[in-house]
Design a protein that fits this description.
Layout (H helix, E strand, L loop, with lengths): L6 H14 L3 E5 L2 E7 L5 H8 L6 E5 H7 L8 E5 L6 H8 L22 H12 L5 E7 L8 E3 H9 L4 E8 L8 E8 L6 E6 L8 E7 L2 H5 L7 H15 L2 E6 L2 H4 L2 H12 L4 H8 L9 H9 L4 E5 L3 H9 L3 E6 L10 H11 L4
Parallel strand pairs: 1-6, 10-11, 10-12, 12-13
Antiparallel strand pairs: 1-2, 2-5, 3-4, 3-5, 7-8, 8-9, 9-11
Helix pairs in contact: 5-6, 10-11
Length: 358
């Protein structure tokens, strides 16, 4: 029946539930796991989870486990046994590295060895996709409680493995300082996620490589003029070059903070103030170096009728992912702008640890 939500719509509903502090249930055959995001968990719901017949455990990523010196027996994650006298303050301290330097001793942390961690792994993926800290309080269940969102595991894994199809919603003329002959196109993903945008300068021919830039949203740099990164100058520089050439496409992708969201990006900034570099801060939060999906850019270009591009970028990973997604990159066009005393270390880290050509 078409009125019943499909797996993609249920996943979108689950993300909203978790962001509001409501648990969801993962189901795989006869196994059920109730999942709550530590970041949004209330004291009442924490107490109710601890009162379940099967005591809950804490799932954290291997990156966070490494910081906490916990054994990640499951490889890319660790299932931490809750101490008997645990409270929500302790749980948040394990999940969030804000006080790691002030209170480094969280343990000893005992990790589970037995049983499968596949549903815990899926829970962490869903939390990341919801832009929440990847720390989940999970417990096995005999049956799904009424009222909680039920998520079937395998269809959800398939959805998370794929880039959601994007559909054009509207386009309109928006004259820019750097290019008066420009249009803004809005694209909406099927999975209920954030919309993405394409700024089309002039009328670039579809049968030739288009001058293109994949630009990830940066509220602090693009809007506020932050000096901690080079994003704002890169955005302005890319649009200026397209304006000078009379044609181009800037793809503005809502993947703030290398795909971890603005709140987690600010957490990373706070860790940088403690002396950690960009990559180290992401790892301490439980994320990988870069959580973005540049297949989005390839999908947008294809939707607009392009099959090849001259890519404005310093990041070889963007080129590789675009080509894997079916867009031929005929030329890398450097974009070296925006260095200042506040971001020199940040740019050096991008070059040394992320392979950027700076």
């Amino acid at each position: 029946m078409s009125l019943i939500p499909d797996a993609t719509e249920i996943l979108s509903r689950a993300r909203a539930d978790l962001r509001m502090g409501l648990p969801v249930v993962l189901v795989d055959g006869d196994r059920c796991l109730i999942v709550a995001a530590v970041e949004t968990l209330s004291p009442d719901r924490f107490a109710d989870l601890c009162a379940l017949p099967d005591r809950p455990h804490l799932a954290i990523t291997g990156r966070r486990a490494e910081t906490l010196k916990a054994r990640a027996y499951d490889g890319d994650l660790a299932r931490i046994v809750l101490p008997r006298d645990v409270d929500l303050t302790w749980l948040n301290a394990v999940a969030d590295p804000a006080d790691d330097l002030r209170k480094p001793m969280k343990g000893p942390l005992v990790a589970l060895r037995d049983g499968t961690a596949d549903l815990d792994r899926l829970a962490l993926r869903i939390l990341k996709s919801a832009r929440l800290l990847p720390a989940a309080l999970n417990a096995p269940l005999a049956e799904v409680p009424a009222g909680l969102t039920r998520i079937n595991a395998q269809p959800t894994r398939d959805i998370l493995d794929q880039a959601s199809p994007l559909h054009p919603i509207v386009g309109a003329r928006v004259p820019l300082l750097s290019a008066e002959n420009s249009r803004l196109h809005v694209f909406r993903p099927e999975d209920g996620g954030e919309e993405h945008y394409a700024v089309e300068i002039g009328r670039p021919p579809r049968d030739k490589p288009v001058l293109a830039r994949l630009h990830s949203a940066c509220f602090t740099g693009d809007v506020m003029g932050s000096l901690k990164c080079d994003c704002g100058p890169q955005l302005a520089g890319a649009l200026a070059q397209m304006g000078q050439e009379g044609a181009g496409v800037l793809l503005y992708l809502n993947q703030e903070g290398r795909g971890i969201g603005l709140a987690n990006k600010m957490r990373a900034y706070s860790l940088q103030d403690q002396g950690f570099d960009t990559v180290e801060a992401n790892h301490r939060l439980g994320f990988e170096d870069d959580e973005r999906d540049f297949r989005l850019g390839a999908a947008l270009l294809k939707e607009m009728g392009f099959t090849s591009a001259r890519l404005l970028t310093n990041n070889p990973n963007k080129i590789a992912m675009m080509e894997r997604a079916g867009i031929a990159v005929t030329e890398r066009v450097p974009l070296k702008v925006g260095e200042n005393p506040h971001n020199a270390a940040y740019l050096a880290t991008k070059a040394a640890k992320s392979g950027h050509l700076l």
